[in-house]
Amino acid sequence: MKPTTDYQGIDSCQSILDNLATAVVLLDRELRVRYLNNAAETLLGVSAKRIGGQRLPDLLPRAEVLHQALERGLTQPQQFTKREMELPLPTTGKQITVDCTLTPLAHVNEDYALLVELQQLDRMLRIAREESLLAQQHAMKVLVRGLAHEVKNPLGGLRGAAQLLERELPNEELKEYTGIIIGEADRLQKLVDHMLGPSRRSEQQKLNIHEVLEHVRRLVLADSPPSLRIQRDYDPSIPELLGVKDQLIQAVLNIVQNARQALQDDGTIVLKTRAQRQFTIGQTRHRLVLRIDIIDNGPGIPKEMQAQVFYPMVTGRAEGTGLGLSIAQTLVGQHGGLVECKSEPGRTQFTLLLPLRDHYEGGNPQHVPH
User: Fold this and answer.
1) Do 102 and 226 sit in the same domain of this protein?
2) pLDDT 10s digits, 88-108
3) Within a domain: residue 294?
4) 166 and 26 both lie in a single domain
5) DSSP assignments along 144-211, one per residue
6) Strand positions, DSSP E, 238-312
7) Model-level pTM?
8) pLDDT at 359
């Protein structure tokens, strides 16, 4: 745009402002938009020609925090910044996170009241969150492997001693107790093996991710009442994935079963697939990434548990082992991917991000500094 007045100061800087990565919006005393640069058009999803002269609060009616900041900017002479502001966008229905800096201009030019700068943070916040998950996953893997090693050795000795004792016992009734010891040792051994994950890396092969999802869907529906619904929203254009089919089935099954238990067999689970280009996982940018969303309309995960859902032994159910999500994260991690979680009452979404390998797109993954 194209300033709506003949103010030469803005005119002369327009080419500079239009090439900034930061969104810049210029408002008058009535908070009407007098100018916005190209980055602001892209961020807000609006055309400068169409919204020139309209009030910014009217363009973003659900952005209450921004409204309060704008009112404060009209009465405060100093520049200030609101960090990590949630900004709902009516044009797309999405909510983004921005740093918002407001600079009062009334003392510079009476035609203008506020200079608003919006710096989108979603990508940086997502990378930081993913790095935290990856670090968490690595730390837990080291901890669990160390703990499992310490547990496995005594378990083997305990089981061996119970077997030797069983052979020496003259009374068959007493052997019932050694049988319990051996059975419990075997159960703990299996639990430790589950915590460790697969003992070796299986050979990866080309597979259709929708065959994996359909297999999981059939398994869950076969063991569920009709009140549980599993809907599909697949992108048929997604290419084949290089992976281990059994491991991906187990990862998806663990998450879907978790959703089913949260719903108590009465609700809706959505399986959704999409491909995303030039997508970053952690600090690695991939040309093409497969995104699998598993969404349920259950009660949600308590906020105090959301940061810990991928820890082993963390569960909100008395009968749960707390290993399902941890194992899913490990299995997806072995494919170079990551599992993320967002939850609020009525909507819990687990997202599996899996790189689609280079031979589909050409080129190599890139390390992305930030």
Assistant:
1) no
2) 888 777 788 888 999 988 666
3) yes
4) no
5) HHHHHHHHHHHHHHHHHHHHHHHHH-S-TTTHHHHHHHHHHHHHHHHHHHHHH--SSPPPPEEE-HHH
6) 241-243, 267-281, 284-296
7) 0.57
8) 40
